[in-house]
């Protein structure tokens, strides 16, 4: 998990996509017009930077902000920026043919606010002990072990 202090100096500005061409991508943390996140209706976007506001951002006429990291997370979690997704559990997916005989895989999950999580899954034999809640503990050797409660 990323430490909050890493974002203490980070700022975010929301603006209309019609002004994207005015952004100097050498002065913000996004890389191009093609990689910015847009609102659900595709009319707004945002850029982020550390430190002093870049002049290309301060010159925008449709800007909203600047916002802190915590503030932008709240905004991006609204229906204007995130389409709710309902997943019925259990979620089943097919492992592609090159991996059909593999017993351990890692799945990358991206959520609606851009957070990514890596989950280790195993269909093989577990070694070790099992916690009462069946929690899985992953050692640095990338092997999966189960532990049982005392």
Write structural notes for this entry.
A hairpin with a 5-residue loop joins strand 4 and strand 5. 8% of the residues lie in helices and 25% in strands. The chain contains two helices and seven strands. The chain folds into two domains: 73 residues; 50 residues, no CATH class. It has 150 residues and is mainly β. A three-stranded antiparallel sheet has the order 2-1-3.
Percentage of residues in strands: 25-35%
Element string (H = helix, E = strand): EEHEHEEEE
Assembly state (oligomeric): single chain
Across the major sheet, the strand order is 2-1-3
Residues in helix, %? under 10%
Q: Let me know the largest β-sheet.
A: 3 strands, antiparallel
Q: Please mark out the parts with pLDDT under 50 across 5 or more consecutive residues, or reply none.
A: 126-132, 145-150
Q: What is the count of β-strands?
A: 7
Termini separation: 29 Å
Features:
150 residues, mainly beta, 2 domains, 3-stranded antiparallel beta sheet, two-stranded antiparallel ribbon, 2 helices, 8% helix, elongated, disordered C terminus
